[in-house]
Amino acid sequence: MAKLKTHSGSKKRFKITATGKVKRNQGYKNHILTKKSTKRKRQLRKSLIASDANAAIVKQMLPYA
User: Fold this and answer.
1) pLDDT tens digit string along 14-41?
2) How many other CB atoms sit within 10 Å of the CB of residue 6?
3) Which of 20, 36, 45, 56 would suit a FRET pair with 64, their CA atoms being 20 to 30 Å apart?
4) What is the 3-state secondary structure (H, E, C) of the chain?
């Protein structure tokens, strides 16, 4: 069977943890930052675990991760 291609956008955005969960960064932190509070911007820095439904899709796009 041929090798599977890794989705280029996904490999830049997601990491697979040691337990197999999908880690992702939060959005809403690129522009129009002046109206967002310092607290909100600080909390958006943290990464999250993707939901189970989205994690399954991401894992298909990252076959060798």
Assistant:
1) 999 999 999 999 999 999 999 999 999 9
2) 13
3) 45
4) CCCCCCCHHHHHHEEECCCCCEEEECCCCCCCCCCCCHHHHHHHCCEEECCHHHHHHHHHHCCCC
Please give the Cα distance from 42 to 37 (Å, whole number).
9
**What CATH number corresponds to the domain at position 33?**
4.10.410.60
Name the nearest CA neighbour of 16 among 49, 54, 53. Answer: 49
Q: Are 57 and 2 in contact (CB under 8 A)?
A: no
- What domain range includes position 55? 8-61
Report yes or no on 1 lying in a domain: no
User: Structural domain tally of the chain?
Assistant: 1
